[in-house]
Structures are given as C-alpha cells and as structure tokens.
Design brief:
Strand 1, helix 1 and strand 2 form a beta-alpha-beta unit. An eight-stranded parallel beta barrel has the order 1-2-3-4-5-6-7-8. The chain is α/β, with parallel strands linked by helices. The chain is built from twelve helices and eight strands. It is 43% helix and 13% strand. The chain binds NADP nicotinamide-adenine-dinucleotide phosphate. The site of NADP nicotinamide-adenine-dinucleotide phosphate has 26 residues, from helix 8 and strand 8.
C-alpha cells in the first residue's frame, strides 16, 4: 500500500464536530458527501467527545449497521494517540488497545487508514514504528499515517517504519500558512505523501473571523471570487488545493448546501497572481 494506491479523492468529509445524538444529521451529510463524490471519511477515537470517547466512531458503526449503503465503497480513516489529561500516548500497549477499541466501535475487521493523531514525545520512533508495523502485519490496519508531526519527527519515524507512511494530516488554510514555510509541505512533496488538510476554511473564520489577518484575507478572497464569478468558499479552498502538494481538504460543514458549494472548488486552480494576493494578505507583508 503506497500513497498512490490509496484513494484519498479530491476532498474528504470529517466527523470532528459531531456529537452522538446527531446520527440523523450525520447520515444526511454522509449521503450529501457521497452524492458529491466524496468517498473518504475522516474521524478519530476522541471525536464526538461531548458525549464520551468513541462517540463518532460508535456513530460510524451505527451507520454501517443501519444504513450500510451510505458507506459502501467508502474509506474511513481514524486516529489514536490522544489521551485527555495525559495528553499523548503512543506506547505499544496503549495503541494496541486503542486500535482494538476503534475496530470494535466501527464494527470493522480492519481500519482503512490509521493516523497517530499527535506525536508522543515520550515514545521512541523505533518503538512507534514497531507497533504500527505489528498492527499492519496483524491485519488490523491497512495503511498508516501521522497527523500534526514536525518534519523531523516524520523523518525519525520513517527511518524505522517498514510500512509506507502514506499521509501527513495537517492544519492548513488561508489563515494558517505555517506549513508552507516550516518544512511540512516541502517534506510532503519530497516523499509524495498525501496531505489531508484539517480546518481548510479555518472552522469558518475565513468568512467570519474578526482578526486583522482574517479581514485582510477575506478582502482578498472576496475580490478574487467577484472577479472569477466563483464563491468565497471555492476560492478559500482553492488556496489550499492550488498549492502543488497532494492536498485533500477535509470538509467539516454540517450544512449540505455548503458541502455542495465546497466541492465546486475541485476545478478551480488559482493563477499565481491571485494565489499570492491571498498569501500576502495572510502574512500582512508584500513579498519582495
Ligand atoms: N488531525 C487533527 O488534529 C484534526 C483537527 C481538527 C479537525 N480535523 C479533521 O478535519 C475536519 C474538518 O475540520 P473543521 O471542521 O475545522 O473544517 P472547516 O471546514 O474548516 O470548518 C468547518 C466549520 O466551519 C463552518 N463554516 C464553513 N463555511 C462557513 C461559512 N461560509 N460561514 C460560516 N461558517 C462556515 C462550518 O459551519 P456549518 O456546519 O454551519 O457549515 C463548521 O463549523 C474535522 O471534521 C476532522 O475530521 C483533524
């Protein structure tokens, strides 16, 4: 399984914002996502935590039982390694039990894509690699990836891992541009990782944020949207997808109309001048 073999699609749909009582809404949104061509769903063991650990995974298990057609042909990614109050644990003992719990809650025999949600500084990369390789060899994980790692932490892990590391899930948006210059996206292009992108419209702040940066970025996006006859949502997402890494925005909206609007960004590639206008608005400085 290499990152080219895994079908990440152009967009993914994320479960972070759900609580377990939103089963009907989740079904409606998964249906809208699948109709819009999204086959990649993203969750984590900690999502839906207002109603307890595992709530979002449990909800996916319920969808699989009660509305299996909604998940037919979909790939479901989940994550582990965050422990509220600790805050991180990537020990063999912990991850093995976390994976077993995720398998049980989602009602699957194998997880399509498993991320280490955040780096545990107290786990040696050789030990983490051995744990992940063991879980792949045991048939519990089809593919492995990481989220929110530094480029150096990924190099450390890759030095020991036998299974291909196929993706790095990161925060990236017109309001969060650090991955462009901190080595994260350079590394993803160097190794050809897929880059599933969380909060690609900064949780809505691109459209409603009041910081100076948000207002500058919104002004740039609105001007480009008006010029191109596209929506601000499309332009905001295309800031992420125009970047030449294999970015895959994970949409977090629970509004079907917004989701349909978002996927229209698929055919929009910003020209250099427009992309740099947004970049400069984000930094607040003109490039030399
Ligand atoms: N790996 C990690 O550490 C990590 C961390 C966070 C998230 N994630 C993943 O990334 C996914 C997406 O994250 P996200 O939900 O932050 O993504 P997002 O798509 O940037 O934000 C979605 C939020 O923005 C709001 N929004 C969207 N368009 C808007 C508009 N035009 N005006 C006002 N509000 C608007 C949505 O509200 P409506 O619902 O009303 O549209 C929703 O609350 C998560 O579900 C999860 O799978 C991963």
């Amino acid at each position: 399984m290499t990152s080219q073999d895994f079908d990440f699609g152009s967009f993914a749909y994320g479960f972070w914002r759900y609580t377990e009582d939103q089963f009907d809404l989740a079904c409606k949104m998964v249906e809208a996502a699948r109709e819009a061509g999204i086959d990649h769903l993203d969750t984590a063991d900690i999502y839906g935590n207002e109603s307890g650990i595992g709530a979002a995974e449990r909800m996916l298990g319920r969808i699989a039982r009660e509305a299996p057609a909604l998940l037919e042909g979909a790939t479901v990614a989940t994550k582990g390694g965050i422990v509220f109050g600790t805050p991180y644990n990537s020990s063999k003992e912990y991850l093995t039990s976390a994976v077993d719990k995720s398998l049980g809650l989602m009602g699957v025999e194998r997880i399509d894509l498993y991320y280490i949600h955040r780096p545990d500084m107290l786990t040696h990369p050789a030990d983490l690699a051995a744990t992940l390789d063991g879980l792949v060899e045991a048939g519990k994980l089809k593919a492995v990836a990481v989220s929110n790692f530094t480029a150096a932490q990924i190099e450390g892990l890759k030095a020991y891992l036998k299974a291909p590391l196929i993706a790095h899930q990161i925060e990236f948006s017109a309001l969060h541009i650090a991955p462009i210059t901190d080595g994260t996206l350079d590394q993803a292009m160097r190794h050809d990782f897929a880059v599933p992108v969380w909060s690609p419209v900064a949780g809505g702040q691109v459209f409603s944020g009041e910081s100076d940066q948000a207002q500058r970025v919104r002004g740039a996006i609105e001007a480009i949207a008006a010029k191109l006859g596209r929506s601000s949502m499309e332009v905001a997402l295309s800031f992420v997808t125009t970047f030449p890494a294999r970015t895959v925005p994970i949409l977090g909206t629970r509004n079907p109309e917004r989701l349909r609007e978002a996927v229209r960004a698929k055919d929009l590639i910003l020209d250099r001048s427009d992309w740099y206008d947004i970049y400069e608005a984000a930094t607040g400085e003109q490039l030399p």
